[in-house]
Amino acid sequence: MNPHITSPRQYGGPTTFSGMAPSSRSEGIRMPRFFKRLFKFPQMDFEMAVWEMSSLIVAPKKVFRSMYYHKQTKNTWHRPDPSFTYLLSFFLLLTSLAWGLAYADGFSKTIRITLVFVFVHFLALSLAVSTAAYFLVGRLLGSGVPGLPGRRRQGLFGPPGDAAAEQLEFGYCFDVSIRAFFPVWVFLYVIQFLLMPVIAKDYWVSLFFGNSLYLIAYGYYTVITFLGYNALPFLHHTELLLSPLVFLIAAWFTSLFGFNMPRHLAPVLWAGASLRKAV
To answer: Mind telling me which residue stretches traverse the membrane in this protein (predicted)?
Structure first.
């Protein structure tokens, strides 16, 4: 009887959100590695998360270059480590308390601001953007559809066989979304909070600097999103992801004729607070 040799699990087959090879039917559905590590704090690489945050402002391309090395060693683009999510959530918690103490009327509204900042602005929005990107980017910018150069169809579980080696992972889409949110937090949740007593005034200079914060924040979000998907070698025409910059610049230029973004779009306003103290 000849022995049957199987390849090690970590080297077999494609990966999805979990960063794990799909198991056989007899093994059933296994919990994704991301959720298994959700509460294993000693195994989280917070040092890497801090390095990524510091690099996202000055050299965001390095962050996604490191993910390419992760693909070479772990056979998955997605990094199943929630340390970045936890760390940015903690920073949002701190800034929400600052916004609440400054502009909320009472403890209950401060708690509401905290919940909205962390679970709606950050987590829910990132999940929504990553879900949309998983289907739209994989479907429109992939490869392999006859008659549509540079595009391929993308389903929830990806194509079978060898084509799955070029599958867009949902976990990677989420990684890109939460990293793109970091500059938004820096400019709109931290810097805007510190400058609010100045940029909320009825002066054109205040309007210019305040509105420019939004242009920079969402411009960073767009560029980092582009760099994230541009790092994937099986996607094509990713420069199309930079097209929102045209709308952002047009909206910023139009707003300079009298629409003060900090007074109407400050994050705390979406949580039911008021900016009367700033104005």
So the answer is: 84-103, 115-137, 180-200, 207-229, 241-259
Tens digit of pLDDT for each residue in 138-190? 888 876 444 444 444 443 433 444 444 567 889 899 999 999 999 999 999 99
Q: Judge residue 40's burial from the number of C-beta atoms within 10 Å of its C-beta, 0-12 exposed, 13-18 middle, 19 or more buried.
A: exposed
Domain residues for the domain of 253 are 53-271
Residue 31 and residue 84: Cα distance in Å, rounded? Answer: 20
Nearest by Cα to 240 from 164, 125, 129, 133 = 133
User: How far is 163 from 118, CA to CA, in rounded Å?
Assistant: 37
Structural domain count, the chain: 1
Chain centroid to CA 49: how far? 13
Rounded to 10°, the helix 204-230/60-74 angle is 20
Q: According to the model, what pLDDT value does residue 33 have?
A: 53
CB atoms inside a 10 Å sphere around CB 208: 14
Question: Could you tell me if residue 247 is inside a domain?
Answer: yes
